[in-house]
Amino acid sequence: MTDISLDSLRIGLFGTGRVASQLAPALVAAGHQLAFVWSRTAAAATALAATLPGTAALATLAPPLPLPPADVYLLAVPDAAVEPLLASISWPEGALVVHLAGALPLGVFAAQPAVRGGVLYPLQTFSPGRTIDWPAVPLCIEAATPAAEATLLALAGSLSQHVLRLNSAQRLKLHVAAVFANNFTNHLLGIADALLAEAALPPELLAPLVRETVAKALANPPFTVQTGPAVRRDAPTLAAHHAALAAHPAWQALYAQLTASIQAQL
Hints:
The chain is α/β, with parallel strands linked by helices. The protein has two domains: 10-166, Rossmann fold; 172-264, ProC-like, C-terminal domain (N-(1-d-carboxylethyl)-l-norvaline Dehydrogenase, domain 2, Orthogonal Bundle), CATH 1.10.1040.
């Protein structure tokens, strides 16, 4: 893997899901070349490749066909698919193979001594129909060798203005924090939306409150600006809310757990 132009890398992309479909055009826009796109579903690979000038869809990974050459192979596949995919491919000696997972350690590459492992974790949520502002997305990198790190720094820097070197333990803690901030928050908003629907109330009623809550939490340590009946230890209101959730015992239990967690921070 010599004579690599870090300004224009050849990239082999494995995966066509939410992350891959957003990342692929961003890579092309940043001046990189997509050497190929592969998916377990050939039609998905063909469809994504058709949107990327000069990109081929890789129909099979089966030997004896050699893997097309690339400076970086990106594994934009589900976490559980990374290790089986690594083991199923005859990688070129010294290939830089990079996964995009938040919770998988760099150690997943240990069983593949022929490759140089790396991580490029985008700290963002990806959904169909949403446009990603890549320069604002934190990209967290980790690499097995200095040369691999240099390549990942260049690749990440071509996409984002916020590139961080994180080890596997730091990235795992970040991933847990992101689940609380994103996935759990979205779930709670879903519960709120359902409760409003039960009362024939429009969901946009909560929009100003949600915006102010997020703005305040981003401007201050969130625990220090907590409000509500749990903070006030307002027993009558807490009891009324408990009763109002009688039709939803799982949400009722969640309300009680969150109340206890809030009060434990006081």
